[in-house]
Structures are given as C-alpha cells and as structure tokens.
Specification:
54% helix, alpha+beta, 195 residues
C-alpha cells in the first residue's frame, strides 16, 4: 500500500483529538508514520497493524516499538497504552510558545518586507521604477507576509480565548503556508535582484 498524505483533523496540540484520530486510523489498518515539522498540519500515513495508540512523553526509549513524534510539542504517538501518559496541561503552554515564536518570525518578515512592499505598491499604481517582475514579486511578498501575520494572530487569539476549532486550525495552516511562500518569494527576489 502506498504512503498517503493527509491533513490532521485537529491542531497538533489538541492531544485528545489527535489520539482519537490515531485510533480511528488504526481501525482502518493505517498508522501515522510522520507528522511534518515544516508543515505541522500534514501527516504521512502508511499501512499499520491496527491496535490502539496513545500519546506519551518521550522520556523512556522504547526500543523497536512504534513511535511517531508530534513536532514542536514534545510528545510521541505510541502503540498500546503507555504508563507515562501525557499531561495535557503542558500542551497548551507549548502551543502558545510555538505561536509566540511564529509571531516573532513573522514580525521580522514584515519588517524585512515593508520597503519592498512599498516599492511594489508604487509599481502597481504606476509610480515606481521597478521592472514588472520585481514589482510583482515585491507586491506578492508583502501580501504573503501580511496574510501570515494576520492568520497567526487569529490562531493565537483563538487558542487563548476559546477551545480549539476549525477556524483556529485553518489559521494555523494558512500562517505556515503563507510563511513558506514568503520565504520562497524572498529567495527569488534576492536571486533576481541581489543587493
């Protein structure tokens, strides 16, 4: 059976829903092989033996046993029932730390992008002296940085104020995708017109 990529049905720090999902996959003879570190809302699935899964702390090494790391959350999905079951209170703190780090990275991206975006917007309104490619790249770069900043702030507010929901998951995914698109466009801009 080939490997499949699926979106997580929940945020990576919603451990109760993640554990339930792993167990529902086990009933379909699937298991989570890996959760992406770069896009932590995507999981790689493969054929599995079934059984039950739980989330645990990565304290003890389980030699030869199945385990899948939940990125940024210091947790493992392990086969069977674990003695060192994860305390769900620490997951919220780690989630807020991850979102705070994302806010800092995206704030830095916005600071780097402001000048380019201003030149790109001037080009869009016919007042700039950029080439068509540079103007378009500059404008898109600003758009992706702004979308990423807004979506991570929405995710942060929803995580603090309410229980995790679909809007929070969508904002989390959008912030990561926008940030990667910003980085790719930034690299293209540096290659196209080096400083």
């Amino acid at each position: 059976m080939p490997l499949r990529i699926r979106a997580l049905p929940c945020l990576p720090w919603d451990f109760t829903a993640l554990e339930d999902w792993a167990n529902s996959l086990a009933r379909e003879q699937l298991e989570i092989r890996r959760i992406s570190r770069a896009l932590p809302f995507l999981a790689l699935l493969g054929e599995g033996p079934g059984g039950s899964y739980t989330l645990a702390r990565p304290r003890r090494r389980q030699n030869g046993a199945y385990r899948c790391r939940v990125p940024w959350m210091d947790a493992l999905i392990v086969r069977g029932r674990s003695e060192g079951k994860y305390s769900y209170g620490g997951a919220r703190r780690r989630a807020l730390n991850l979102l705070a780090a994302l806010v800092f990275i995206i704030y830095s991206a916005l600071v780097l992008t402001i000048g380019d975006t201003a030149r790109g917007l001037a080009w869009l309104f016919g007042e700039g002296e950029l080439s068509a490619v540079s103007g378009l790249l500059s404008a898109l770069n600003g758009v992706f940085a702004l979308v990423s900043a807004l979506s991570v702030l929405i995710c942060l507010v929803l995580t603090v104020r309410v229980k995790y929901n679909r809007a929070c998951r969508a904002a989390f995914a959008l912030s990561f995708v926008s940030l990667w698109l910003w980085l790719i466009l930034r690299a293209v801009m540096l290659i196209h017109s080096p400083i």
